[in-house]
Design a protein that fits this description.
Elements (H helix, E strand, L loop, with lengths): L1 H13 L5 H18 L1 H16 L9 H24 L3 H17 L7 H26 L6 H21 L5 H28 L5 H13 L6 H12 L10
Length: 246
Amino acid sequence: MLFSAYQLGENMNKNLTDNLTDKLRMLWETAQKELDINFINGSKNLTVVQLISTMAEPIPAEIQPIIKETYVLGANKGIEFAERALEAGDYLSAREAIQKAGEYTHLAGQPIPPKVPELLRKAGVLGLEQELKKARSALHNALHSDASIACRLWNYHLDAAASFAEKADINPKQNIHKVMKEEFPLLSQKLVECAEYVLDNHGPADDIMDTLYAYARQLDLPVPEKYEELRRRKQSDGKQAYVRVN
């Protein structure tokens, strides 16, 4: 279907004045059919149709009603898809669909349905919860025995959790702070392992040690004893002293 849309677009580009209205109508009718069959594929096809239609601006008045109908249909289908995705626990697809639904509603010139912010919030709550679980798993998963990988995944999922929450107008600070505090012993252990590995290979461990110190301060927890050991080791190895002004 994407190929058909592109093909029609190429034909229009050759002679935009030839049956322009009929060709545009065909494009938007096809877009409606695709949305009705499958929202994800349909929304991708609609993006192509939107792009092709810009080549024909100003769009003939006869086409405006079907364009509005398409956007209304796309919004409704997006909401339906998001509801099913949330039931299945797929918060990523749900958020994408509900954002598209909001976009289509705006393009149709209609007020945002209450379902849009409601579903966006549900996706945010679920995304926050699941991404925090993934952050915990990154530290505990035996497959992530490489401390640096575990720490990178931890940070990635924490950032994702915050992103889901913020886009749903949820303050994630309390949830994230709770998880960070509970996991700090293991997290600090992983960071120490990273720093030791770097020092063993005569590399600079300042960033890792800074991160460990910052986490402790942020959580109002004491800096692990290993932190001081690493600092002393760094000094004894003849590297630049790691000084922290309290």
